[in-house]
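Batch manifest, entry 17 of 40.
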Amino acid sequence: MGDLASLKRQGLTKKVTEVATLYHPRTWKEKGLWWTAGLFLVTYLVVNVILGIVWSRSPATFDVRGEALSLANNDKSKLVPGAATTATAIRIVATLLDKPGGYLSNDISMPGVFLDNIPNWEYGALTELRDLSLALRKDFSRAQSQSVEDKDLEIAQPQFSYNSDSWILPSSESEYRKGLEALYRYLYRLSDEDALDAQFFARADNLTAYLEAVEKRLGSLAQRLSYAVGQARLNTDLAGDPSARQSTPVPEQSQTKTPWLKIDDVFFEARGFTWALLHTLQAMEIDFEPVLKDKNALVSLKQINRELENTQDTIWSPLILNGTGFGPIGNHSLVMASYISRANAAITDLRSLLKAG
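Output type: structure tokens
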């Protein structure tokens, strides 16, 4: 028994010695393992940098009419009212989920965890998608306030309102795909002449209600973009109503400035929102064309889309510049705010035409 125990101890000692020798720096140097480990690390970092660059590219624009025709469940030469808008919503969701790198807002691994431009772009596009899905559910698909909600839009809209950065149980992607499937079902029924339970009402009042929500979003984005250079703002919250009150008193003048590290976040959020909005309004050009022509407002919507197209111009600078007002260095945030403000003003005019035309 003593000899057996001694042999076991010797075997264990030999094994420990072998493992210690293997992981000793001198052994790594002799066998070239340091070089192998270094090469692996450098390769890993290079691959992540390349992926980060590729994944950080903003998605390109797409042909709204072509997208709608490809998804239509009827004669491919015509589109029923609402088909273009619904197909565009579907494409926005698909882009968020299936672009290079997939959905990045909830990534916890490299390189996605270190990227912030595209996650902010995603949040902007997701915000517009949420507004659109809500409008589809409560306005476009209903004839009047007492009508029943569409069964698939009733599913889709809450799915897109799910937390945007959840990575597990359930993940944001899984919830958004459920909403995507519901939109596909709604579009299928909408394009099926035999299915009478899916409707899209292309009326001036529905479009006006949606544009009112868009107007507030654009106004907020323009203000946040302008804060990149700092702004002294007078309190006009209660202007125009002498009897108006607010819950908490605020100073008559306040100084606002976006933190330096947040400037590009706001910029790319605005770029993502306007990307999604551009395609949505292009789709509404198709679905609401008779209404817009009757109000002599089609050209106004076209001009809004022209302004929004400018927000998607190529960014040639490797960084989002933040030069002061009329200083020697440009300011990308102020340029974006200018395009958005002009589009917002045009939307205000369009709403007036729809109401009074």
